[in-house]
Amino acid sequence: MRGANGVIAITTKRAARGKTTVTLQSTAGVQHVDKLIDVVDAEGFKKLYSAALANAGSAPFDFTNYNGNTNWQKEILRDAAITTNSLTISNSNDKSTTLVNIGYNDQDGVVKYNNYKKYIARLSEEIRINDNIKVGGNLTGYHWRNEPTAANLNTAIYAAPIVPVKNENGLYYTMPSFQRAQVGNVVYAIDRNRNTAIDRGYRFNGSLFAEIKFLKDFTWRSTVYTDLGFNNNRNYTPLPYTVVNIGEGATPTETYFDNSARTSVSQTAFESRKYQQDHTLTYDKVINDDHRLTAMVGFTTLYTSSTNLTGSRTDSVLKVPRDPDLWYLDIISKDNITSNGGTGAEESNVGMFGRVSYAYKNKYLLNATIRHDGSSRFAPENRWGTFGSVGLGWVASEESFFKDNIKFIDFLKLRTAWGRLGNANGVDANLYQQTISQSSAAVFGENVFPSVTYTYIPDSALHWEVVQGFDIGMDVRALNSRLSVEVNYYNKTTDGILTSFTLPNTQVTYFTNLGKLTNKGIEASLGWSDKIGKDFSYSLSGSFSYNKNIVNSVGNNSAFQITNNGSINITETGKSVGYFYGYVQTGIYQSTADLDKTPHMTTSLPGDISYADIDGNGEITPADRTYLGTPFPPYSYGLNLSVAYKSFDLNVYGQGVAGNKIYLQRRTASFAPLSYESNRLNAWTGPGSTNIEPIINARGNNLLFSTYYLESGSYFRLRNVQLGYTFNRAMISKIGIQALRIYVSGQNIKTWSRVSGYTPEAQISNILASGADNGIYPIPAVYSVGLNVTF
Amino acid sequence: MKKIFKTEKVILVALSMMLMFSFTACKKFLDTERQGVYTVDNYPYPGGSGPYDVYLYSAYDDLRSYDVHCTAFFLATSVRGDDADKGSVSTDNPANGDPFDFFPVQASNSFLNGMWTGYYNLITKCNRVIDQVRNNTTIVATDLQKTQSMAEARFLRGYAYFNLVRLWGRVPLIDTLLSVDQINVPQSSPAQIYAFIENDLRFAATNLPPSWDKKFIGRLTSGAANGLLAKVYLTQQKWAAAMNAANLVMTSGQYDLSTSYDKIFGESGENSKESVFEVQATASAQEPTKNGAEITQWQGVRASGDWNLGYGWNVPNTYLENAYEANDPRKARTLLYRSTATTTYKTVYGEITPTTWTNPIYNHKAYTNPAYRAAYNNKAGRWMNIRLLRYADVVLMYAEAANEVGGTDNITAARNALNSVRARARIGAVAGTLPDITTTDQGALRDAIRRERHVELAMEYDRFFDLVRWGIATEVLHAAGRPNFTAPRDNLLPIPQTQIDLSKGVLTQNFGY
Asked: Which residues of A touch B36 (CB under 8 A)?
């Protein structure tokens, strides 16, 4: 197979005997970022930066030589190709089933010049020795090649637009002196580092199973899995380019080459291993046609480990050329600047479980599970947890009184379940132990003496996080199954949430089981599907869910306040987890007279944000901070529409959330004078000019966390729109094709949202510190065409 | 039917036996340890001459940390004074930087929380050493080794609290390793904290050696402890105790004023006879930054190209320029001027300064030797030691304390000490420069000593504390273009809001904020 940007030539022969199918699935598309962050252009920047200097009482900046008007985002983003291709050949007969699959994916990143290629091969085999015994296996290998990018999206927002990318001789410009040290020319960065990484990985996973049926009702099944990964990475740091520092005031425009820079080469080898075994014994029996009993016991283990080895050398004499054939550590003699490192990880899990399900006349349903799990992440005495669930169902529509009386309902099921689940994955493994870090050192004279530090306070009592709760619901199908309704209510309590937060004074991160959290909510969906005539069918469905979370307790951590992201997210009993906590903007202080009659801070000046006097004491103090919303959307919903007419089919799926807030953290960066987003063009310039945007002057008052830095996270997005055409089977079978479908699709092609960032999906990693937009990567729209063909 | 149940029974028994067997095997299977990382249980505690050194060194490491001795530190100690401005360009982090110049600093200022955290991390490491000495039975050590390690830890802890109490007044006094449920400690009064500092430093002064062999040059000594103790007493106006502590340093035989003022601040002046307490930093071509301190880079010349030595913060201003007596050679070693169209200026190493630097004046004491920059192939200057306590400072503290104790003999001793500093300063200057002070009047001598401290120790991270302890901060700062300075509020910084929030209100804000 040879693929060039998604075009694959294939030739297949029909298998001589039947039951052989060959399927090709192929898509090719383009990814496009349709929304950029709205930043100022050169003119806007000059206006705002001049205002900042004037408001600070500083001399104006000399823009004379800055003639650029660059939107740095446009310089680093691109329309990027994506293709996925998969060819499957399967063969099945009485004794065996064989499946061979090869695949090739190639995806350019929307950020230049990111690229990821993946080559996949898979073989799957099942052999039926007799009616009672079958064995089989699965072997998958893939290889990926990654071209990373050196671009930083935030840099593209922070860089001044007044600088052109390059001069007429192809030399890159640096940023103006006020941000030169902190903000780089992002095009320079991606060009300099393009094609400097040989980043490859290999992954092999396989499994073998055997299944034996015996004594009529029993089935024993054993499976073993292995998953091995090898990543190999070589990196080259080239010399910098000569740059042009644009002249400012007395300083003339000059070219500069950093003579102190050196070339270097690094290598990384990473290996991961995963071994798993599952054994189950199942008993399945139908007694007198009315009783169906299924019972299962099982045992599973999982072991994962990894090692990583890194090294780098920097040549202080020679300049290593830009030639990948040379990028190995030994190209630089070992007497040069060298560093190396190695790490590893290991973890294991064990589980034993049993499950029983019983149905009487498919009317009364019962199922119960119990499991006992062990995780090496916790101390020996806290390693094991017992979990389980019980579910009851009643299919009312099977009752004779129902069948006799309620004709229009085809199916009605009432169900309820109670369960208790364990989770061990919230924090890193083995944190119950105090580890020793050896990264610091004392210096005396020119001598360096290594030292040890304890980088965290261990919680020796770390244990399983337990989610316990119940749900109750109903499934209905009615009107000849054209109408379907599902309603579900749940109430779950998470006890001992595995998470982390900082402690007072030292702000050391503490990993622990934090208190109790309740999630309650309802989920409902409604669907309708029907046919009109012979050729037209359609279905329409919608879903809606509401969730509310409340912290019931913070466990043993009530002696201090649990805050994250610098007091912006607060977690406390009785409130929503990790809620936003800050000031409420009421407007802008327009004048000294306005200040005098409005509650303000001792440091407030006209043009500053005015805040609500929540405690009503006549002045603005930290006590005026309050609940500002939650990073977690309470409402989410989805809509799906499918239409089919003759050979055409159309599917439209959209999804949205409502009610959450996003913190615009990217706008609070103050490490250097940065460019502005366009909202700042409306900054306060004098009484009456605006009641929203504060004065252009980074006074601390206006950087306090308030509703000014929050925006609504609500959105609705068209996730997928697909139009397909399925060829008439009779027609294509003449040319040896069994099935053929072609389609065009668009993913994420439209989003309705008021967020100013690339995408409304703000990060939710640590539930105590969520909802900040610190430069969220864009989610591109993907337009593609696809082909599914079966021979 | 019956038969089937019998078989099932057998299977069930077999199964439970298998389960029991696998259960014991599982216990072992789950014993996976951390890979490639020591835990406290398997760490091979080093013995030898310094059994607690690996812990102590981590506290020494913190002295070079950004949060302890860099931006927040010079902003609080120097930029808050009359002599220095924030520097850089006016649009460079004005929200957090400018308030240190113009007051008041807000509780939400990000530098505050970083510095608070930095000092409490240093204190934790000191408490760790003390805990190891007291409680770690795995480590075999002599009583002398124990006492000496304890003395080093208590010195550093005392130093940390001395800065904390001067920066914030009331702070939590944490003298032991705390478990998580005890970690929220209320503030102690400044008097309690000063008593604690004195205890720590007196223990250090008694138990530290007067000097170390060459391998450990710059390590803490009894002289450093007495010198710091003198400053602690002086700050509390315990004049006799201050005079006595300073005198112990002066009579120790370890220090003198023989190093020329030109040489003290450069790389070649590190750990000279002038050095009493000096944070050690170093670099090599291999590791140009890792073992260094950032404070030099932050004050380095801000310019483009080869002159891009740093960020240009904490720059001397005209108020300092005007503080010098005529022809005082120390002025040129403290203020590094950008050349102008009409005047050419040079660095202490003879380079002509360009006219294109961003700021008109930089801190010359933080200027690195170009030979070192070339040798390390690096411009950041992180190899420069931080001079926290120089011998001249001790001599001037002696002078100040002796003068305040009063009496003819003491005033004479004070004047002599003062003149010894002036005598060194005038070396190489035209005749008549910096003449000896001759006054016998206590008030006049007090003013002379204060003027001398001002110029001798200019840009050495002590000016604001001097102004506050002399009670002249309002007067001086108002005259130096900082009309917003309001005592007593601005004598102290506000407790970081993040810490008040974390403490759930156990910490209370300072007066006036």
From this structure: 342-344
Q: A215 — contact with chain B (CB < 8 Å)?
A: yes
Could B108 and A704 be called an inter-chain contact, meaning their C-beta atoms sit closer than 8 Å?
yes
Residue length of chain A: 791
Q: Cα separation of A160 and A166, whole Å?
A: 14
Do B313 and B419 belong together in one domain? no
Q: Do β-strands A465-478 and A661-663 pair in parallel, antiparallel, or remain unpaired?
A: unpaired
Cβ A684 vs Cβ A591: under 8 Å: no
Instruction: Give the mutation candidate from B6, B16, B32, B340 for the A interface (greatest A CB count, under 10 A).
Output: B32
CB distance from A603 to chain B under 8 Å? yes
Using the Cβ of A697 and the Cβ atoms of chain B, whether some distance falls under 8 Å is answered with yes
User: Which residues of chain B does A291 touch, with a Cβ-Cβ cutoff of 8 Å?
Assistant: none
Q: Please indicate if any CB of chain B lies within 8 Å of the CB of A672.
A: yes
CA gap A274, A230 in Å, rounded: 12
Model confidence pLDDT, tens digit, residues B240-298: 999 999 999 999 999 999 999 999 999 999 999 999 999 999 999 888 999 999 999 99
A310 at interface of B, judged by CB pairs closer than 8 A = no
Q: Which of B90, B109, B120 lies closest to A700 in CB terms?
A: B109
Residue B3's closest chain A neighbor by CA? A215
Interface pTM (ipTM) of the complex? 0.93
- Give whole-number Cα distances, B463 to A89, A120, A317, B78, in Å: 81, 68, 46, 6
What is the domain count for chain B?
Answer: 3
CA distance to B47, B133, B134, B149, B213, per residue, from B143 (Å) = 14, 10, 11, 10, 21
Q: Which two tokens stand for residue B227?
A: 């010198």
Three-state DSSP class for B353?
A: coil
**What are the tokens at B340?**
């102008």
Cα-trace Rg, chain B: 28
The structure tokens 């904020």 sit at: B513
Q: Are residues B272 and B407 in the same domain?
A: yes
Phi, psi of A519 (to 5 degrees): -115, 125
Chain A environment of B219 (Cβ under 8 Å): 444
| Rg for chain A, CA atoms, rounded | 32
Indicate whether B196 and B342 sit together in one domain. Answer: no
Provide, as residue numbers in chain A, all residues whose Cβ is less than 8 Å from the Cβ of B61.
440-442, 451, 453
A316's tokens: 């202080």
Q: Which domain, by its residues, includes B398?
A: 216-280+390-463
pLDDT, tens digit (0-9, with 9 covering 90-100), for A135-151: 999 999 999 999 999 88
Among B289, B282, B275, B322, smallest CA distance to B460 is for B275
- Give yes or no: residues B151 and B132 share one domain: yes
How many whole angstroms separate alpha carbon B146 and alpha carbon B9? 67
Q: What pLDDT was estimated at residue B17? A: 65
Question: Chain B neighbours among A 479-538 (CB < 8 Å)?
Answer: 502-508, 510, 512
Classified as helix, coil or strand, B211 is: coil
Cα three-residue angle B86-B88-B94, rounded to 5 degrees? 60
At B74-87, the pLDDT tens digits run 999 999 999 999 99
Same domain, B363 and B447: no
